[in-house]
Input
Amino acid sequence: MKRGMVWLVAGLLFLSGCAAVEKWRGKEETPKSGPETPNVVFHTFPDIPVPKELTLIREKSFIYETPNLKAGVLVLNGNVEVPSLENYFKINMVKNGWRFVNSYKFGDVILNFVKEDRSSNLRMTRDSFTTQVEIWVGPVDRSVTPDRTISPMIPKGNDFK
Output
């Protein structure tokens, strides 16, 4: 009888320990989800929607926050096809006030968006079984204009000789 109680207690401790580890790793986290978008979650950035099929990888993600700025990198993965994700982000980022700037496609897909004083760059990479998504969010310096970005060391016009 005592041996059975020891095994029962040990089993309960083991299960509660697993639950604590899962919570620490973010598996138990239930990010915000709006009632009008049941298949969408928001991790850290309330205006960047993420499909529920993607899981946040906390060990690879990084957030920097001050009273005036929140920036960082979210890394997620899941078994979702890249063209489907590309379409999802193009539609839902715009719905959340982001403006689509451009995209690059060659194996990986990179989407670039801007919003007021921030930019967001999304990179989607597919391997054999999963797709990894990196969402980079950072500030935009509006004082920089195209004329100021040209290096003084680069000749203008046909000055190359």
